[in-house]
Amino acid sequence: MTLQTLDTGLFKLDGGAMFGVVPKPLWNRLNPADEQNRCTWAMRCLLYESGNRLLLVDTGIGNKQDAKFFGHYDLHPADVSLIGSIEQAGYSTADVTDVLLTHLHFDHVGGAVKRVDSQLLPVFSNATYWVHSAHWQWAVNPNPREKASFLRENIMPLQESGQLQFLVKSEFPIPDIELIYVDGHTEKMALPIFTINGRTVAFMADLIPSSAHVPLPYVMSYDVRPLMTMDEKARLLQKAADENWILVFEHDPITEAATVEMTERGVRVNATGRLVDFL
């Protein structure tokens, strides 16, 4: 049983959108913006091996979009990719048996599908792709606020391939994984919670995209229900502090994982480091 992070590269998003109502003089000290007010963010995935199952959690942005699309996000460095990181970990795309998509925004699902000539095909040909059924409906019938984040070329090939399966409950068909569903960022985003080596590891996806977002008011403007996000964060962070969970941040460009503690100012980051060091 192993659990490791995968680096799929960095990209840039508007700092104001990523930090919501928090004033720029505060968030700019945490993740300095460039001349276009964009901050650098990671696209970190998880790879979990248990028995004969190899699970990938999220897939980054992929490489099938055109130069105009990628020009908005300044992807870098050029030599880092999801497939390259999987191979560096000692596996191939054919080894992946399951892909859990926390949600279907383009920076989480784009790497699940590749372009082969005129066809769009799943990258992981032997894998089952998992997503919550209600989130799937949310994505294929998008609201105007999220429409630009749900790209049909990232989504529909998964269903057309016959490799897509829907989740409805917290049980996951691989041992030692529980799913928590949250609705503040988008409908029914899935957070996988792993039990490994006697520790609990929680993958934060876009509920808490970086260590800078641990304080409750630090909520993205991308969230469709920001007040709900605050409530969901509060409940999860309290439990994480009480039970010494390891939190893995999908988008933090520096901090891969952390534990948190309760302070007079609320829950704050305690220790930081690589996931492997905590385990």
Written account of the structure:
This protein is an alpha/beta fold and 279 residues long. It has one domain: 4-Layer Sandwich (Metallo-beta-lactamase, Chain A). It is 23% helix and 32% strand. The protein has helices at residues 15-19, 24-27, 67-71, 82-88, 106-109, 133-140, 152-160, 226-243, 275-278; strands spanning 2-14, 38-50, 53-57, 98-100, 113-116, 119-122, 128-132, 164-167, 177-182, 189-196, 199-203, 246-248, 257-263, 266-273. The strands form three sheets. The protein has a six-stranded mixed β-sheet. The longest helix is centred in the last third of the chain and has 18 residues, at 226-243. The radius of gyration is 18 Å and the shape is globular.
Query: Which percent range fits the helix content?
Result: 10-25%
Total helix count? 9
The global form is globular
Mean pLDDT: 97
**Can you tell me the CATH superfamily?**
Ribonuclease Z/Hydroxyacylglutathione hydrolase-like
Largest sheet: 6 strands, mixed
What's the end-to-end separation, in Å? 12 Å
Instruction: Give the H and E element order.
Output: EHHEEHHEHEEEHHEEEEHEEEH
Number of domains: 1
* CATH-assigned fold name: Metallo-beta-lactamase, Chain A
In the sheet with the most strands, the strands line up as 1-2-3-4-7-8
CATH architecture: 4-Layer Sandwich
Per CATH, the class reads: Alpha Beta
Number of strands: 14
Which regions contain 5 or more consecutive residues with pLDDT less than 50? none
Structural class: alpha/beta
* Share of β-strand residues: 25-35%
Q: Please give the radius of gyration in angstroms.
A: 18 Å
